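ok so i was messing around last nite and threw this chain in just to see what happens. nothing serious, just curious
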Amino acid sequence: MTEADFLTTTRTFYDAIAEDYATLFQDELAQRPLERAILAVFAELVDGDGPVADLGCGPGRTTGRLAALGLPVFGVDLSESMLAIARRENPGLRFERGSMLELDVADGTLDGALSFYSSIHTPVDRLPDLFAEFHRVLAPGAPLLVAFQAGDEHRHHDRPFGHPVALTFQRRRPEDVVELLSAAGFTLVSRTVREPDPALDETSAHAFLIVRKPR
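result:
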């Protein structure tokens, strides 16, 4: 699959399901105390008052959470339908359409960035390019938070909410992602993995990696 193919497939999928997705996961962070704690730790690690980017922000729930924690955050996403929800729910925040692989951000200008479950549709052979782009836009010393479902078996969603679209959600081994981030020039700050929560119908563990671009 070419880059254009997987980007188009991802954008089409989320454009189709945006409203249903936003409704289903409306209280997502409220039900996930560890995720809230990880976001708070990330916010504490941001040193400086420069911009912070929520890369692959979806409906903007994480963006709004970081703004409430005092960060000057903006969101980037492929899906215009997701961005419309993000703007509607966070009228004071900035949201831009774009690809994480080609960010419209100058070198070394972000004081922090996060990819909160947004790298899971990037083919594994493009992860080095993705992490190199994250490294490019971050200022020296800035933290990066990468969250994803952990494991070896991918999950394919076909016709979600009855929409005629399909997409594969890729699981990764945390140690493999750490290796790729290290190869991109990041240093590991913390690695957290939590078990699936049966109350939330989860079937996989969740990994949260915080890395930093060296000063």
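not much to say yet. Strands lie at 52-55, 73-77, 94-97, 112-116, 143-150, 155-158, 166-169, 187-194, 205-212.
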